[in-house]
# Entry
Amino acid sequence: MIVCLDSGNTRIKWGVHDGTAWLAQGAVAQAEVGSLAELVERWPQPDRVMLANVAGDETGRRIRQHLAAWQPLFEEVRSGPAAAGVTNFYKYPERLGVDRWCALIGARFLCPSAAVVVMAGTATTIDTLDAEGRFLGGDILPGIGLMLRSLAHGTAGLPFAEGHYTSLPRCTDDAIVSGVIEAQAGAIERVHARLAAAGGNCLMSGGYAEQIGPHLVIPYRLAQNLPLEGLKQLALAAR
# Structure
């Protein structure tokens, strides 16, 4: 049995896999990391515990503290030049965010062809895999929440918008929300257009994926918890 932990900027996503299928998945806020201890009670004897952590050393320490019974089983994943069918063309492969690296590996497993891999969370990452599994590069932009907050905090006259998307906004809140979604969708579509000749797919993951996806003019597939899929694949490949 494999336990996978994806520690992001806001939440810690977890999943338990028996080698054939996911038994359970869930998420806790970073501030509620102590609740992870319940996993030890439910699954006391996993074979491996895979961790991808982009939230800093202190967060990693707290995760291990609350899962102390699993300490000998922990494997903290780092980005590298190649793994599980994906080759990393980043200028410095080890500097690629490990959440992006695991998402790319998860995407390759789910869709073994050219793909744009979108992680729509605190930040939005838009990464390109070619048909041979080579990660060619990718973009990073503020996520929906960060964009909304930047307008509210960085301007004197604009609110934190709670509007709705519309193609022709006629109030300020709708104008802000629509503009933010258009920016996210437009960036994804531009990256996808460069891959379209290779028949590229688009996989969407992350907390804001369902908010962005319906406004894309390209076909896409929701594939939630892609980093967990990647962690699981890394564990299976290491057997």
Remarks:
- The mean pLDDT is 94.
